[in-house]
Design a protein that fits this description.
about 100 residues; mainly alpha; 4 helices
């Protein structure tokens, strides 16, 4: 099977091996790596979105804590407040289940 793409794209997109190149992997193994990387990307994206929304919520509901943390340069009060917001949100979600 002839592939006109770059070697990595040829293997991922079409599942064919470039003639004369020994990749050492089967197309099934490559597809499992692709699935793993997409799952990892999705997990990191969800965690980032949750932390960003919790930080915005903290800025709106408790600006004094955020201002004190920024002024003093210590992130400990900010992290404690952020953990409290995430804990309360998680507790609220579990009430519905």
């Amino acid at each position: 099977m002839e592939c006109n793409l770059l070697p990595a794209a040829c293997v991922i997109v079409t599942g064919c091996l470039v003639p004369g190149v020994n990749w050492g992997r089967t197309p099934t193994a490559i597809m499992s790596v692709v699935r793993l990387s997409l799952s990892l990307f999705g997990t990191v994206a969800v965690i980032s979105a949750v932390l960003a929304s919790a930080t915005i919520w903290l800025l709106v509901t408790d600006p004094v804590t955020v201002a004190d943390a920024v002024e003093s340069g210590q992130v400990s009060p900010l992290v404690q407040a952020l953990a409290g917001v995430l804990y309360d949100a998680f507790k609220g979600i579990l009430r519905y289940l």
